[in-house]
Amino acid sequence: MPTKTNLKELLELSEDEVMAAALSDPDALPTDSGFWADATLVMPKNKEQITLKLDADVIQFFKAGGKGYNTRINAVLKSFKEHWSGSVVNWETVEPVKKVAAKKAKPPAKAAARKTGTTIATKTKHSQTRMRK
Fold first, then answer.
1. pTM
2. 40 alpha carbon, distance to own chain's centre
3. Do 122 and 113 touch, CB atoms closer than 8 A?
């Protein structure tokens, strides 16, 4: 068996030797059609290319992890975005100014009553029932 990737030696391996090598590597076990039966194709999202100026130490930090440093930088930025989603952020301090609340849906009975002109009973602030058209 070749110890380092050597294309010539690799091409000379028989199918049985390739299968034996695959079976001995827990990270490269062969798969059959059953393995792929429930697989779902997930297409990568389109990424936009930009020019970004970063501090040298930041670039060195991400490059130290080897190939894929752009993907790691994107993952950190995406995590930051997901953490702050729904907030109005003060970008000078990177602190939330306020959490943006999702609009509440109107209760179906009130919305339907408004459309049809039906009178419904509602509670006021002071817990008094009043009729409303």
1. 0.40
2. 16
3. no
